## 1
Amino acid sequence: MGAEGFGVLWDGQYEALNRLILGTGFEIGAALARHGVPIDQVLTLQANLVGDLYATLSAPAMPIQDAIDLARYLVETTIGFVRFAVFLPKSVGGAVQIAAITKHEGFRWVQRPTLHDTELG
């Protein structure tokens, strides 16, 4: 998130989105060290790489539907990445719930599975 107060934030199983948005995976520091970057330079190089590779996916004036679609895409990307990544625990998936919070409408469910949907798996 930029200093302007908008942007994409994520947590939890973050490897997929780190790679997609930051341009590097969690192990980038260790990889740089293994490839000869001096330990005292690893953090600086890592920060510079993220600065150069960062993918801006949102804008302050983004329409709410675009923000909803982006959130859905990021969740589905994470689920797919974790599903196929042999090195990660299978800790995400299942029914996706999406809500939007706006100044004028407040909290509003956008995608919420019904009990019937969740019973189907």
## 2
Amino acid sequence: MTRRAILLKWILYCLCALALALLQGLVLVYVRVWGVHPFLLPAIAVIPATLERNEQALLYAVFFGLVCDLLSPVAGLPCFYALAFLLGAAAAWLLSGQVIMAGVVCSLVVTGVCMLLCGLLHMAVLAGHSGAGLTAAGLLLGRELLVSLPFAAAAHPLFRWAQRRTLSE
């Protein structure tokens, strides 16, 4: 693949991420099921890692996490999303390369893993600061997973389109 094609591919991935982040910020904040909003950011960070399986996908996840940290910081842990998305992308890279074939099912699994990592890190931050109840946080994480995974399945075709678009050129 030429440098131009690689650059075009990652620009398309970033445009897909922007579209999904706008969907998250403008529409999904008004959707409420079981008391939680769908959370697309982990899916945006890890789905390209399942499709690409290279170091560039890990860098994409870190930079996307840094953008999320700048726009909505988590109190108590600087670079929360950068760390969570890097770990999620590394897990996605390993799972899609050796355990599950890249596709919608793989995207759902790795999004679930990344959301679980985000939830566990968030529970650790909350427990360290306020001694919050881990049972309530765990139940909230479970509801968030159930509500968010269908939206992650809908996000996969957009990133797959970006990948196919650059492979055909």
## 3
Amino acid sequence: MSDLLFVDDNPDILEANRSYFEDQGFHATACISGEAAALLLQTHSFDCIVLDVMMPGMDGYEVCKFIREKTSTPVIFLSCLDQPDDKVRGLMLGGDAYMVKPYDLRELHAQVVACVRRKEKEAAPAPDFFIDRERRIVRLHEHSAILSKKEMALLCLLLSRPDKTLSKESLCAALWPGEAADENRLQSLVRNLRRKTDFACSHIGRITSVYGQGYRLDAGEGEGD
């Protein structure tokens, strides 16, 4: 039985989520505030955390930062904020998914199941391949690559949305916040990341250019810039 933590300042949403997921066979814990969640996380671990963004006091983004300092537990954001910048911010902070309220509980269930499966897969022994996000290392067998901070940030963004096209504008905004979008700089970063991680594309996936849109991480052969 997977242990889930739901954090939301709306008690009705908390109860609806808790009740639904317990009916689906999960063990669900609810916290009414970010502060309560942070306190609980000092002594308890979970398989997935479903986190509201807009809460008084310690908001969801702050809770996610707290979580990422301690663990890689999957985090799913729930929020009324529906702009691309809001979603990108959540993913850049370490979120694994971002859903906009109101949402379908069946879709949330699917996201939770996917996150729990990924966590279980990552926990399984895999000595031949790993990504060390803190040290910015990608390793497969005897091959390894050290990435720059921007290259690792880009890789994490793409890994967070596999098989989804991320626009050039959203990637530039996430990688260079507050600066004008520079597609040439992004193109150069993508080229360098491809070159460094080509040896591991069978495990990571391949970065594909989507003409006129942006970039996608998938298992197919990537086209040139």
